[in-house]
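RECORD CONTENTS
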Amino acid sequence: MTPPRQTPPTRRAQPPRKVTLRDVAELAGVSISTASLVFSGKGPVATSTAERVHAAATELAYAGPDPLASSLRQGRSGTVAVIVEDRLLHAFRDPFALSVLDGLAQELDAMGTSMLLLADHGDTQPNPLATHAVDAAVFPLCGRTDSPLVEHLLARGIPMVGAGAPLDGAVTHVVVDERGASAAATQHLVDLGHERLAHVLMPLGIRRPTHRVEATELEHAAYPDARERAHGFLDVAGPRATLVEAEQPDVEQGEAAGRLLLDVAVHERPTGIVAQSDLLAAGVIRAAELLGLRVPEDVSVTGFDGVDLPWLDHRLTTIEQPGEAKGRLLGELARRLLAGETPGDQPLEVTLRVGDSTSGPG
């Protein structure tokens, strides 16, 4: 009996060989080093030579050098972690935060470095950095005094840059005189003749509805910028001046704070309100107008940041803080740290800009 014929196993097709830089160089008739310079853009190469290299790459369907292999050779990942407090949603709704991130992105792009956006929720579980290789870390926005990510980054030897937080000797900061700036905004109202003053704070670090706070509570604040701006207000207005903490630093909670301060008897109502951000100030103005009050005739309002709010029918009197320049300075500090320098903290100048939201008391 003839045995059944065996069907030979199907031979698998071999994957095509990966095109390399050497292949491109050979086809273009140049050295590998010259081809590498064409793709990196970091050296002088004749235009005609570069055109031959690019034509060869197109013919061979070569996408360019492997960035991972290049970073491994250099001992760098080519990525900087940009760590944003809490949910990214809040940052993308804040025009000042966006301007800082834009300036930072411009500087990192000029360095040829990518930006990895991560959210810091204030705990280490899960650690957003555990599975990422990064060369440096930037904390670009308002953050807590402490971050559990600092110890992790320190253990990995990763340089860190911040905008006033976290407060750790290992973090190099762009420093704003928060207290002095807030005092300047408050002094502006005092110089106009206001005596009944109130202050609307960004969150101090405890999730709770917008409410009045006592000056003694400031020492327990988790956010140093909110604490220092409040101290600056009290330095001028006096320790018994009214403080209201907003649940979030946005227009809606600014309106809630404004109602709390203004929906009272005339003799109890402040004639001047210093808000810790332009969005909070815009919310206070909205509350005033909904209550039938005129700004600035019945109540003067100041902000902080100097962002463009085209939908607001007022040009705010505010502390002008250049967000894009701040972001670029954060990126420059990251670049200098990666170059092995020790630049130290860098000051960022802010100024009082007088708009039409303040005047003498009516």
Remarks:
- Residues 95-110 form the longest helix (16 residues).
- The first strand starts at residue 79 and ends at 85.
